[in-house]
């Protein structure tokens, strides 16, 4: 698949600089193509590929606190810009084996427990610190590891919340392959 979106070199340099100091290597990669978590949603949202795009990779250790901090740094870096979309593309349920076993009672229970927790964390009045702490401790939630054997599809949520640090302006739960999934939309000030 090809999604020939243009880059945004100046923004990329600003983001590179803004992400320095997080305690992890921050490098510019100009040869790698877009990840499916970037080009799939953008191809649906902007089929003409007529918006500039900068892709930021997750950290391999999937440290939730670090990903919240990444979001904060991204938000600080782009405050002077208009019309910037921070897209945290992932999935609130990502257990491929459980998708194949649609009627597995344990998978259904884990899915509902985790999605109900996610709704409570994102969609109820909490302080920024309390919401962040709950996201950091996501693994302690019943069903969390059943829903996310690996957390690469959950950490984009942490980055998005880290950038917005507020209750979503829109929150929707839908069924995908007989599993509940959550979508959240934030507006940044």
Index terms:
two-stranded antiparallel ribbon; 43% helix; 7% strand; mainly alpha; 189 residues
Structure description:
It is globular and about 50 Å long. With 189 residues, it is mostly helical. Strands 1-2 form a two-stranded antiparallel ribbon. Helix 1 crosses helix 3 (64-78) and helix 3 crosses helix 8. The mean pLDDT is 92. Strand 1 (170-176) and strand 2 form a beta hairpin. The longest helix is centred in the middle third of the chain and has 19 residues, at 105-123. The protein has helices spanning 9-18, 36-45, 64-78, 96-100, 105-123, 128-136, 144-147, 155-164, and strands spanning 170-176, 179-185.
How are the SSEs placed, and which strands pair?
Elements: H1 9-18, H2 36-45, H3 64-78, H4 96-100, H5 105-123, H6 128-136, H7 144-147, H8 155-164, E1 170-176, E2 179-185
Antiparallel strand pairs: 1-2
């Amino acid at each position: 698949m090809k999604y020939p979106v243009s880059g945004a070199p100046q923004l990329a340099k600003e983001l590179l600089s803004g992400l320095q100091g997080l305690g992890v290597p921050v490098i510019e990669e100009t040869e790698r193509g877009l990840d499916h978590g970037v080009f799939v949603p953008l191809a649906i949202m902007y089929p003409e590929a007529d918006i500039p795009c900068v892709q930021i990779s997750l950290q391999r250790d999937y440290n939730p606190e670090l990903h919240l901090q990444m979001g904060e740094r991204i938000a600080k870096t782009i405050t002077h810009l208009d019309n910037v979309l921070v897209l945290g593309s992932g999935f609130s349920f990502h257990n491929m084996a459980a998708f194949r076993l649609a009627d597995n009672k344990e998978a259904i229970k884990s899915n509902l427990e985790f999605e109900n927790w996610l709704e409570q964390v994102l969609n109820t009045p909490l302080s920024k610190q309390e919401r962040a702490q709950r996201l950091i401790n996501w693994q302690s939630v019943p069903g969390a590891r059943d829903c996310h054997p690996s957390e690469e599809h959950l950490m984009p949520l942490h980055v998005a919340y880290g950038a917005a640090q507020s209750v979503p302006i829109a929150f929707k739960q839908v069924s995908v392959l007989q599993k509940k999934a959550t979508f959240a939309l934030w507006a940044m000030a």
